[in-house]
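Field reference: sequence -> structure
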Amino acid sequence: MTKVLVLYYSSYGHIEKMADAIAEGARSGGAEVDIRRVAETAPAEIVKAAGFKTDTAHPEIEGPDALANYDAIVVGAPTRYGRMPSQMAAFWDTTGGLWMKGALVGKVGGAFTSTASQHGGQETTLFSIITNLLHHGMTIVGLDYGFQGQMGLDEVNGGTPYGASTLADGDGSRQPSTVELDGARYQGKRIAETAAKLTA
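Structure field:
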């Protein structure tokens, strides 16, 4: 069975919800799925003052070597000034040993994100994640236009061809919509199906 890792960092829970939806989609695509989060690197006083969500059902990833155990890795993180946050970047900065061995070459990768506003850097954040995956030799699967939910202008929604996304509003009050979660499920399923074909 194809093994998929959903690896995320979430400050306020939006990406955590999207990670669950990605995992649902991957499971519907026939994969065995693990959800892991990267370590919080912000000082405890910042975490408390900013009101970060600290309770989660998902364990922290065991370390970078765990990535080699999967056929596909889907990475989710919110935007920080148009790029992935330092917590996720710090984790990928520890993967040099895997890069030296080519341990992730040929695996499938994808990315998903959250921003406060429509133009808050969703696509640049996704590319900041995807760049790391490409350097590791991974094959990228985005949110293709087979998912029609990202089309139309009737309502404000996340969703880009580069990966599933959600909008949180400036105060974090907006939660992922049905359309955004469906986009995450669609991408997760496509990633699982692609990985299954490549490992067959």
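Note: Residues 178-199 form the longest helix (22 residues).
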